[in-house]
Amino acid sequence: MHTQSFTYLEEFLKKKIELDEVKGSAIAIIHKGKEVYRNEFGMADVAKNMEMKRDTIFRCYSMTKPITNMAVMILLERGLISLSDPVENYLPGFKDQKVLKDGKLTPVETPVTIQNLLDMDGGVVYPDIYFDAGQKMQDRIDAYYDDAYSGKPLDTVAFANMVGEMPLEFHPTNGWRYSFSADVLGGIVEVVSGMRYSDFLKKNIFNPLGMTDTDFYVPEEKMDRFMEVYEWTEDGLKPWEFDRMLGLTYRFYKRPEFESGGAGLVSTIDDYEKIVRTFLGFGTCDGVRILGRKSIEYMSCDHLKNEAQRKMLDWESLRGYGYGNLMRQMLDPHGNESLGTVGEYGWDGFLGTYMFVDPKEDLGIVYVIQKCGGNGYRDVQVIRNIIYGALD
């Protein structure tokens, strides 16, 4: 790679901190099996005078989803599930589901399957006041939090069943909607494996890869490495006061009952880089085999089935991309208006975390900030352009 480009990257990331757009950031670039660039900038926690360091712990939010994807494919390779299995086979909350549209409930035409959950095309939703099924889910999550903080929390399987009991937005495959699907998949992993979801991940992914700081909470002895979350206010960036989002509880400060397969993990760049290297290694990292090559190929392909789904995949950050197995897949770099490769894939998180894997270039990145809502997709485009521009 052209190492001069790393200077441009540093200048860009430092400028974001000087402008008080973010307080701290970190990035790792992996090329041809090696970490070719790594740096940390700014502060992990201003009030505590905590600088960004190599072992700083961050909240993954939706960068949890690629790991849940791996967990499901592990079950598949062991013959314990089929992707065509109806979810109701594992979670009774998904029996006799209804679709809610224009105030009317109708029986679901086909059962939601595991593949529907992986592709976000089963009609499951996140809380959202702008459409009927989303409003119903918002009402249910409000009640869930009232119960959780009055001493009646749900565990992972119970949460998944609760999601299944709520109406769908559309009949499976008739649309696409970002949703609690990955959280339901965590519940399926628990039911099939007979293990708590975190224990399954530790046994089958984290411990084999040496990911010692990835979990669903930060223990007390590691709190001095845990990043603060900031949000933009009229007075600049301030700590984000939050305790009710996506079913997450306790702000990652203690082990939750519900372990969110969609948003619940914390990690470090050292740890998450091993996930990226496992994807780049087609299932193997440093000689440790997590998945087979064909599973990686399967999960890195676009699974969208029709124009109705593509029309709903309308995020700015997903222009030029398809979607499948809880990740985006690059179909058209020109459509995304940034440098890239057809077949590149990955995902990002609510606080601005971002990862991608490019098998053709044997290239991957992990980028971390912790800002409510991220810092806009343009930053990601600039970072991508600098990194791709460094390739010889």
How large is the share of residues in beta strands? 15-25%
**Secondary-structure class:** alpha+beta
Q: Name the helix and strand elements from N-terminus to C-terminus, one letter apiece.
A: HEEEEHEEHHHHHEEEHEEHHEEHEEEH
Shape by Cα distribution: globular
Instruction: Determine the fraction of residues in helical runs and give it as a percent range.
Output: 25-40%
Question: pLDDT under 50 segments (min length 5)?
Answer: none
How do the strands of the widest beta sheet line up side by side?
Answer: 3-2-1-16-15-14-13-12
Query: Helix tally?
Result: 12
For the secondary structure, the number of strands is 16
First-last Cα distance: 6 Å
Characterization of this structure:
The structure is a single chain. By secondary structure, the chain is α+β, with helices and mostly antiparallel strands. It is 33% helix and 18% strand. It has twelve helices and 16 strands. The protein has helices at 4-18, 65-77, 114-119, 132-148, 156-165, 181-193, 197-209, 269-280, 293-299, 307-312, 333-336, 377-389, and strands at 24-31, 34-45, 50-51, 58-59, 98-101, 104-107, 230-233, 236-239, 266-267, 284-285, 288-289, 321-324, 327-330, 345-348, 354-358, 363-368. The strands form five sheets. An eight-stranded antiparallel β-sheet has the order 3-2-1-16-15-14-13-12. Strands 4-9 form a two-stranded antiparallel ribbon. A two-stranded antiparallel sheet has the order 5-6. α2 packs across α7. The N and C termini lie close together (6 Å). The model has no long low-confidence stretch (mean pLDDT 97).
